[in-house]
Amino acid sequence: MSAPRPAKPRRGARLAILFVALAVVAAVAALWLWRARSSTPANEGIHTATVVRKDFVSTLRLSGTVGAVQAISIGAPRIAGSTIEQLTITELLPAGTKVHKGDVLVEFDAQPQIKAFLDKQAEYKDLVDQISHKRADADAAQAKDQADLQQAQDALEKAQLEVQKNEVVSRIQAEKNNEALEEAQANLKQLRTTFDLKRQAAEADIHDLEIQRDRAQEIMTHAQENQQRMRVTSPIEGTVVLNSIWKGGSMGRVEEGDQVYPWFAFMQIVDPSAMEVHIKVNQEDLLAIDAADPATVHLDAYPDMVFPAKLTKLAPVSQTGDFSDKVRTFDATYRIEGSDPRLTPDLSAAADVQIARVPNALVVPRDCVAMDAGKAFAWVKSGTGFEKRAIQIGAESDLETVVLSGLKENDVVMKGTASAAPPGQAKQ
Fold first, then answer.
1. Is the Cβ–Cβ distance between 131 and 227 less than 8 Å?
2. DSSP string over 11-29
3. CA nearest 100: which of 264, 219, 240?
4. Which carries the bigger pLDDT value, residue 323 or residue 154?
5. What pLDDT does residue 15 have?
6. Model pTM?
7. SS3 state of residue 188
8. Fewer beta carbons within 10 Å, N or C terminal of the chain?
9. Angle 402-404-406 from CA coordinates, rounded to 5°
10. Rounded to whole angstroms, how far apart are CA atoms 95 and 97?
């Protein structure tokens, strides 16, 4: 007897199986489309970075120049009583020379002062001789005038005696006596007036010569003092720093043979053990600076030299910028901790101020973070593509960003995304 044949499935059961298979295919297709929209295949032109955990440090670079905490400017001496406009340097200590208080720093040409002294010395002696002769002549003239005055006085007294005889002499003789008395009186008065005028004139001539003598003596004294001023000594112990001056159509360091104007500061004596950096802080950076922020100073001339520094001064009032009245700057001073023989004034320097520090933070390059509707996100590598992931960010610097959430250490993220989607991916 043969085995029974299996029963054929019903039509409804076949349709159910078909619907289940179509549903599975549709689900797979939907999943594939979703993955295609949220990720993109790997692309060799895409640059990536790895999320790292480290101490995040944000710095602000400020540019300035090096100066000394204690520095004294040395200028050409003022020439008293002279019309000399410039002084010629004959001897000059080179830059970097260490000096003690009282050491000779610079000597100027003293020949003009010596010549002025000798010229006025001869003039002074000549005037002294002239005054002596004038006084002798005046004394002789006064003696003669005194004799004439005495004769006139005697003549007046004699005329007065003769007038007393008028009662016993003739009328004509009496009139003669009166006329003689009047003449004697007039003569004595005239002699006295002339005597006073002669004395005043003689004293005026002598006084004029005395003024010339005193002036010549004053110039001699000035010349002697100026000659001593031609040698300038150091007021403190320190190091010589030579300033730049305008010569030959350009700026250059002062040298022997150069001419400088009186009071012009061509040199400094600085204490190299205490230096600082003078900086003009832009108004936009002012609020980011705090006295407690650590800083390091770098020198453009010596890239290998790095010094710690501390903010010591910050001006409360701003100044106008060099190129616009709308841009304001604030004067700041950072004290350099440490010293080096190469650390001299006027060197260009940069102070890197640490304005933020987050220890043990997740950090990514700043260009790995993009913004969409005010919210941050990153493209994170997922399989063969990249997945758009919302993140929360913290402190930022010019190059790096702290990630507070949304990423973990060693995640690979796309660089240079800005706010656009990766190549081949539509922006969501």
1. no
2. HHHHHHHHHHHHHHHHHHH
3. 240
4. 154
5. 65
6. 0.55
7. helix
8. N
9. 110
10. 6
The percent of residues in the chain predicted with pLDDT above 90, rounded, is: 31
Is pLDDT at 423 greater than 60 in this prediction? no
Residue (of 389, 394, 428) closest to 412 by Cα position: 389
Helix (H, G, I), strand (E, B) or coil at 368: helix
- Facing residues of 239 across strands? 98, 270
Nearest to 278 by CA among 313, 246, 247: 313
pLDDT band with cut points at 50, 70 and 90 for residue 181? confident
CA distance 353 to 57: 10
First CA to last CA across the chain, in angstroms?
A: 71
Q: Mean pLDDT score of the chain, rounded to an integer?
A: 84
Determine whether 47 is exposed, middle or buried from the number of CB atoms within 10 Å of its CB (0-12, 13-18, 19+).
exposed
CB pairs under 8 A, 24+ apart, for 284-292? 285/60, 285/62, 286/330, 288/60, 288/353, 288/355, 289/60, 289/314, 289/332, 289/353, 289/355, 290/355
Quick one: pLDDT at residue 31? 63
Q: What is the mean pLDDT of residues 169-178?
A: 84
DSSP code, position 364: E
Three-state SS annotation for 78-92: CCCCCCCCCEEEEEE
CA–CA separation, 173 and 165 (whole Å): 9
